[in-house]
Amino acid sequence: MCELLGMSANVPTDICFSFTGLMQRGGNTGPHRDGWGIAFYEGRGCRTFHDPTPSAESEIARLVQRYAIKSRIVISHIRRANRGRVCLENTHPFSRELWGRHWVFAHNGQLRGVKRLPLGGYRPIGSTDSEHAFCWLLSRIRACFPEPPRQPARLWRHVHKLSQELSERGVCNFLLSDARHLYAHCSTQLCWLTRRAPFGQARLTDADMTVDFQQETTPHDVVTVVATRPLTDNEAWTVMRPGALTLFSAGEAVAMFSR
User: Fold this and answer.
1) More exposed terminus of the chain, fewer Cβ within 10 Å: N or C?
2) Are 210 and 141 in contact (CB under 8 A)?
3) With contact defined as beta carbons under 8 Å apart, do 5 and 40 qualify?
4) In the 8-state DSSP scheme, what is residue 53?
5) pLDDT tens string for the chain (259 positions)?
6) Cis omega (within 30 of 0) on the bond before 198?
7) 92 — alpha (psi -120 to 50), left (phi > 0) or beta?
8) Could you give the count of Cα atoms lying within 13 Å of 213 in the half-sphere of its Cβ?
9) Distance CA 259, CA 257 (A)
10) DSSP letters along 216-259, please?
11) Is 2 a catalytic residue?
12) How far is C-alpha 115 from the chain's CA centre?
């Protein structure tokens, strides 16, 4: 199974600390050797990096680790292939345009028969069930909302409904963003942690690294990190329930839906 990492923050924030822990699971402390990717939202733009090599051995991953790109929303993924060969086009996260916004999606799990679902205006580039599910998801959203709904909660409820339909086909943990919110859907395993003042120290589980966030932040910063498994061993992570969809904006959980 793959692993996911997401971030939502109220100010542009780098994800170097959490990404350092995640990249070790890509071939060092974990078996996820079949590629990795990360997407950073920057204003209306989205900066992405993909590499089909293990993140623990990737020079591109080391660049991202050292180069502190600041963003309010980040989605990252390390892959253990089960559907689709190991190659660049099958590396998450995937991105498409809707309503003039970059939408980004990363998935953990297997979805039986998902490629039989009809697609609208979006087509996969690679051969994964994950990318097909993303194209189906965006096609269904676009069919229901040709324009952005004035009440965002209508969109949120629709995404939750669609996530339940996908979950009926297997394991469907995913992170999704429309450049405004971070959606986290738990099918089997996902957790999150919000850091705010008073900040303390955090210690990575997968690397010998500790950060005192009081020295790195202001009292007004709010940052939420979402991961498949906790990345630190000295902080209290919230474990999501199967079937739950949680939306984050500016570091805060703004909506929760349950099965």
Assistant:
1) C
2) no
3) no
4) S
5) 689 999 999 999 999 989 999 989 988 888 888 899 999 999 889 999 999 999 989 999 999 988 889 999 999 999 876 766 889 999 999 999 999 999 999 999 999 999 999 998 899 999 999 999 999 999 999 999 999 999 999 999 999 999 999 999 999 999 999 999 999 999 999 999 999 999 999 999 998 999 999 888 899 999 999 999 999 999 999 999 999 999 999 999 999 999 8
6) yes
7) beta
8) 23
9) 7
10) TS-TT-EEEEEESS-SBSSS-PEEPPTT-EEEEETTEEEEEE--
11) yes
12) 22
* Rounded Cα distance, 121 and 202, in Å: 44
Q: Which amino acid is at 100?
A: G
What is the C-alpha separation between 138 and 92, in angstroms, rounded? 16
Locate 130 and state its tokens: 């994950």
* List of domains in the chain: 3-257 (3.60.20.10)
Sheet of 245-249: strand order equals 94-98, 101-108, 173-177, 182-185, 245-249, 252-257
Looking at the DSSP bridge assignments, the partners of residue 108 are 173
If one counts every other C-beta atom within 10 angstroms of the C-beta of residue 113, the result is 9
